[in-house]
Amino acid sequence: MGLIDIEMFATLDLVGQAPGGPDEDPEGFPHGGWQAPLLDETAGAQIDAAYAGTDALLLGRRTYDIFAGYWPHQKGGEDGAFADLFNSIPKYVASRGTPDLSWAGSTHLGPDLPAAIREIRDRHEHVTVVGSLDLVQTLLRERLFDRLNLWLHPIVLGVGKKVFAEGTVPANLTLLAPPAASPKGTVYLRYGLAEGDVRTGDMGAPDRGLS
Question: Which 3 state secondary structure label does DSSP give 83?
Fold first, then answer.
């Protein structure tokens, strides 16, 4: 069984909507492209490393449409390595509609999304999920991911779709590596899904020495 990694860019108030550009999600969101001024070489290298070994992409409809409109037309240059990777590996699209699958190697997943994702996990070594906030909610709810790579950016937006939306199922995560900060203040956190139920306690209990 392979691994499913979620790559997620978020603000300090955990907004993950439209980081890449002003036209990425134009439906009333005023801050599209908020990530661009905060990118630096350190964060770029972290992002490059996160895709190492990826042999399939799992994408929501909106992210797929954005990628399909961009990556097939990129050759060489700064984005050449990503273009070569994304254009050569299978792309799986989670959508209730009928997406245009003209991007080579694309497959529309069926209505039983959890079952389809489990089949993908069995078929590949390293499946990467990029953005796709609605799809991520399903993965969180079904515990259908193994690692969450989260870049927290030093900005607060106050509005927008959250990484952990209402209805997210409680889960334990374990930190896989020490947090790493970039020069512009973005903090990279690598988490793995952990077993067991979420536990609670009393900070004022006598054995904690806080009462």
Answer: helix
Helix-then-strand count for the chain, H and E: 5, 9
Report helix, strand or coil for 120: helix
Cα gap 84→99, rounded to integer Å = 22
- Report the C-alpha gap between 15 and 128 in whole angstroms: 20
| Residue 197 confidence (pLDDT) | 86
Report d(CA 137, CA 65) in Å as an integer.
Answer: 19
Q: Which of 6, 3, 2 is nearest to 168 (CA)?
A: 6
| Model pTM score | 0.89
- Spans in the chain with pLDDT lower than 70: 205-211
1-27 tens-digit pLDDT: 899 999 999 999 999 999 988 888 777
* DSSP E strands, 36-75: 56-60
Nearest CA to 27 among 149, 161, 145? 161
Phi/psi of residue 209, nearest 5 degrees: 70, 25
Beta bridge partners of 92: 58, 107
